[in-house]
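Title: Comparing notes on inverse folding

I've been comparing how different people in this forum approach sequence design from structure. To keep things fair, I'm posting one structure and asking everyone to reply with a full sequence. Here's the target:
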C-alpha cells in the first residue's frame, strides 16, 4: 500500500463547491479545476491535491435549487463558484437563483466567485461587488474562458493565503 507524501499532509485543506444555473458551464469549470475530469451525475465530490492547497470539491450538477441541498453543499465550504449564462437565461431567473444561494454563502462566510457569461455586463450583480468575499468575473463570447477561470481560481487561492497567515 502506498504512503501519503508529507507535503500533501502539511498543506492546509479547504472545501469548495460549484453551483449555478447552467449545466454546460458548470461542467466546463469542473473540467478546468479538476484538470480534465468529466462531471458525472447530479452530485460529485473529488479531492484535489495538485494545487497550492488541498481541496475537497463538491458539485451540485442540477439546475433545481433546494434550500436543504444548498445548505448541505455550502455548510462547510470556504469557497463557492457560482456559474450562470445570461446569454441563455433571463436576468431575473439567474438573480433569483443566486439570491437563494447567497444567504448560505454569507452565513457560512464563503468566498464567492461568480462566473457570468454575458454579452454586456449585468448590473444586477454589481450590488454585491462591495462585499470583500465576492468576485464577479464576466465572460463574453470573445473572452478566453480558461484565462477567466484562472483569474477566479487565483483570486480564491490568494484569499485563502490571507486566511492562512492569520
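Reply #1:
Here's my take.
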Amino acid at each position: 500500500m502506498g504512503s501519503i507524501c508529507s507535503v500533501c499532509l502539511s498543506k492546509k485543506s479547504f472545501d469548495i463547491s460549484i453551483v449555478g444555473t447552467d449545466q454546460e458551464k458548470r461542467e466546463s469549470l469542473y473540467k478546468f479545476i479538476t484538470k480534465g475530469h468529466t462531471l458525472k451525475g447530479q452530485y460529485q465530490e473529488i479531492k484535489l491535491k495538485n494545487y497550492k492547497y488541498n481541496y475537497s470539491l463538491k458539485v451540485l450538477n442540477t439546475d433545481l435549487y433546494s434550500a436543504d441541498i444548498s445548505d448541505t453543499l455550502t455548510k462547510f465550504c470556504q469557497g463557492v463558484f457560482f456559474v450562470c449564462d445570461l446569454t441563455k437565461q433571463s436576468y431575473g431567473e439567474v438573480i433569483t437563483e443566486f439570491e437563494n444561494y447567497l444567504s448560505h454563502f454569507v452565513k457560512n462566510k464563503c468566498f464567492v466567485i461568480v462566473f457570468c457569461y454575458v454579452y454586456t455586463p449585468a448590473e444586477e450583480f454589481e450590488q454585491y461587488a462591495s462585499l470583500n468575499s465576492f468576485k464577479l468575473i464576466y465572460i463574453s463570447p470573445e473572452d478566453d474562458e480558461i484565462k477567466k477561470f484562472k483569474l477566479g481560481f487565483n483570486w480564491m487561492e490568494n484569499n485563502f493565503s490571507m486566511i492562512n497567515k492569520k
